[in-house]
């Protein structure tokens, strides 16, 4: 126990007149630093180690107490005894304090001929004890300065003690889970077509102080002050987004604030449609995304796009697996959607944007592309560009684009003419960018996630480089190599191949349930996802899997590596087959055959030995 200043009482609990959470936290955090409270309802500064030592040295050992002395007290409580002549350097102290000029008060106290100075700290009236001649802001004799700065030191320590701890120290439980996930990512073969591995710079921006700032609104027009740097950041991100897709800023605008692509899509509908207006997108079992509208076969509206708007899907041709453009046109002319959507989640082929444009013009629809999956390919000019034909283009930023999780909206600016029909007026329709920006904020979102915007800007800078183009070219080569390797082994792929980064493996030909195959792969440390194949009767038990190459290409895999991956996939299919034969296809029976399955353990070892050869972007193991 450290000794207290004479005449002071033992502080048993946080002083009641400073019971704000701020002080309570200080009080809790600095323990076991000594508290020297003048009375049970007041406190005095005794803070830095030096000051504490001085306090200890200059005071007899009486009324020893643990605790904190902050050096100022509430004017609601009696004035504290002034501390001894602590030596403090001259600097402007206590940024948290607002000085109130009228409040200098002489203390009528024989022992202590000092001045009290009133302050407001975080809205709480406080009083700082000072020696008589010394000005706290321009001290004439530094040796007479009070413990103001030492009080600041206590607070610095207190803030650092909760604010600057590593995750491992602050929250070992979360740290441990995150470590396990890190190992999982490193040791496995990642084939989920919508996933990728971001670089360290992107991670750094994500885990940065930028998360602290509120900046609702657009650059230059924010709700809150202090956004000069955030404005610069968002403008740079927008500039890079347009550059990455080679877009003219006179013709295209961009909003980088959507938290996800689902939000981005809904912002487009919110901005351009009225409730109940109609949209048309690729059916989910055909490879479309829920955010383009989806009803279950029993008629349940699944996504907000279907809850608030009327949606009618178009489909792929069940024989070929390609979008059936003739049927789409027929349906669109009957349904007259106000927005026609192209783009999907599991479509391995090129989109015929020119044909979409024709159809949209015929029925007077806005043409929107959700290029979430292929945006990296579009940026690298490794597939047709939706920008040549579409009015609005949305995307995720975390798939082939290899940025942080988020959404983005590009919109055509200005006036354009429509020969056929019009969405927003007769004849010439004006496409109002304000409507989209307004839909993002304030209609649907609050403050943008500035750490994500910074991370996106970093990713977009990379997207514009020759290295990124080479990466995307390799993504496609790898997808093609994998497709060929599987087809050589008589596996059936939807559309018999791929034009992009993903392939759809129709497992029905092998008699396998997509779910069972996905489970076996997961146990062998290969991650891919079950996926509906056109003609599937149940969305719960789809007959195929979707396999993508962006993530493993980011780890440096080439075509020969994907030949090995094809071997692993075939082996996993054999294991699934034999477990199904022995235990049945039903999930509850099937899983019984997976426990301690020697084939699975053996394949898992091979998969991990393979995967751990490759480097991991973002972190080293
Ligand atoms: C085509 C498409 N649009 C939208 C989304 C949704 O993206 P997010 O998860 O960012 O909402 C996806 C995600 O898989 C997608 O594939």
In words, what does this structure look like?
There is one protein chain. With 621 residues, the chain is α/β, with parallel strands linked by helices. The chain has 3 domains: 148 residues, no CATH class; 263 residues, Aspartate Aminotransferase, domain 2 (3-Layer(aba) Sandwich); 146 residues, Aspartate Aminotransferase, domain 1 (Alpha-Beta Complex), CATH 3.90.1150.10. A 7-stranded mixed beta sheet has the order 9-15-14-13-12-10-11, sandwiched between helices. Helix 8 packs across helix 13 and helix 15 packs across helix 18. 47% of the residues are buried. Pyridoxal-5'-phosphate (PLP) binds next to helix 8.
Topology diagram in text:
Blueprint: H1 21-30, H2 49-58, E1 72-73, E2 97-99, E3 105-106, E4 115-121, E5 124-130, H3 148-163, H4 167-170, H5 172-187, E6 189-190, H6 200-206, E7 217-218, E8 221-222, H7 228-244, E9 252-255, H8 261-272, E10 278-282, H9 304-308, E11 310-314, H10 325-335, E12 339-342, H11 353-363, E13 366-370, H12 375-379, E14 392-396, E15 407-412, E16 415-417, E17 428-430, H13 433-444, H14 450-463, H15 466-488, E18 502-506, H16 514-523, E19 526-527, E20 529-531, E21 544-548, H17 550-554, H18 559-583, H19 587-590, H20 598-611
Parallel strand pairs: 6-19, 10-11, 10-12, 12-13, 13-14
Antiparallel strand pairs: 1-5, 2-4, 3-4, 4-5, 7-8, 9-15, 14-15, 16-17, 18-21, 20-21
Helix pairs in contact: 1-3, 6-14, 7-14, 8-13, 10-11, 15-18, 16-18, 18-20
The structure holds pyridoxal-5'-phosphate.
């Amino acid at each position: 126990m450290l000794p207290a200043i004479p005449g002071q009482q033992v502080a048993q609990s946080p002083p009641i007149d400073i019971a704000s959470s701020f002080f309570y936290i200080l009080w809790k955090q600095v323990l076991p630093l000594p508290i020297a409270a003048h009375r049970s309802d007041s406190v005095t500064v005794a803070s830095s180690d030096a000051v504490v030592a001085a306090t200890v040295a200059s005071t007899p050992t009486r009324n020893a107490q643990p605790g904190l002395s902050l050096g100022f007290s509430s004017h609601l409580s009696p004035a504290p005894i002034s501390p001894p002549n602590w030596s403090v350097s001259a600097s402007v102290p206590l940024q948290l304090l607002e000085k109130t000029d009228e409040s200098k008060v002489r203390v009528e106290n024989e022992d202590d001929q000092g001045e009290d100075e009133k302050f407001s700290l975080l809205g709480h009236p406080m009083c700082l004890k000072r020696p008589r001649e010394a000005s706290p802001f321009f001290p004439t004799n530094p040796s007479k300065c009070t413990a103001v700065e030492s009080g600041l030191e206590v607070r610095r320590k207190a803030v650092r003690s909760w604010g600057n701890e590593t995750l491992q120290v602050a929250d070992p439980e979360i740290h441990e889970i995150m470590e396990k996930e890190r190992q999982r990512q490193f040791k496995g073969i990642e084939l989920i077509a919508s996933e990728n591995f971001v670089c360290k710079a992107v991670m750094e921006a994500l885990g940065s102080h930028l998360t602290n700032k509120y900046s609702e609104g657009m650059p230059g027009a924010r709700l809150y002050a202090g956004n000069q740097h955030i404005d610069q950041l968002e403008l740079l991100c927008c500039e890079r987004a347009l550059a990455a897709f080679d877009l003219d800023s006179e013709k295209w605008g961009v909003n980088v604030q959507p938290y996800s692509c689902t939000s981005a899509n809904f912002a487009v509908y919110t901005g351009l449609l009225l409730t109940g207006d109609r949209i048309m997108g690729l059916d989910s079992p055909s490879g479309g995304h829920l955010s383009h509208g989806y009803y279950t076969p029993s008629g349940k509206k699944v996504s907000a796009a279907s809850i608030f708007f009327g949606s009618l899907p178009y489909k792929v041709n069940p024989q070929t697996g390609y979008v059936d453009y003739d049927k789409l046109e027929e349906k669109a002319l009957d349904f007259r959607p106000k927005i026609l959507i192209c783009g999907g989640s599991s479509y391995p082929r090129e989109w015929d944007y020119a044909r979409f444009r024709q159809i949209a013009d015929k029925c007077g629809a806005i043409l929107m592309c959700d290029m979430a999956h292929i945006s990296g390919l579009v940026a690298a000019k490794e597939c047709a560009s939706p920008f040549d034909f579409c009015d609005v283009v949305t995307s995720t930023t975390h798939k082939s684009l290899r940025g942080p999780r988020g959404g983005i909206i590009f919109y055509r600016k200005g006036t354009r003419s429509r020969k056929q029909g019009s969405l927003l007026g007769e004849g010439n329709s004006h496409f109002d960018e304000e409507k989209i920006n307004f839909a993002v904020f304030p209609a649907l979102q609050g403050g943008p996630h500035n750490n994500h915007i910074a991370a996106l800007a970093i990713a977009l800078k990379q997207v514009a480089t020759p290295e990124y183009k080479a990466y995307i070219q390799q993504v496609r080569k790898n997808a093609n190599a994998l497709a060929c390797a599987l087809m050589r082994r008589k596996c059936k792929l939807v559309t018999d191949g791929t034009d992009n980064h993903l392939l759809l493996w129709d497992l029905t030909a092998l008699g396998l349930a997509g779910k069972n195959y996905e489970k076996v792969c997961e146990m062998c440390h290969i991650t891919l996802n079950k996926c509906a194949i056109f003609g599937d009767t149940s969305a719960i038990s789809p007959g195929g899997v979707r396999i993508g190459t962006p993530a493993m290409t980011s780890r440096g895999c080439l075509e020969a590596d994907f030949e090995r991956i094809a071997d692993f996939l075939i082996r996993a299919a054999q294991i699934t087959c034999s477990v199904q034969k022995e235990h049945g296809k039903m999930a509850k029976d099937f899983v019984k055959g997976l426990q301690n399955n020697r084939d699975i353990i053996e394949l898992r070892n091979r998969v991990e030995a393979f995967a751990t050869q490759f480097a991991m972007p973002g972190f080293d193991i």
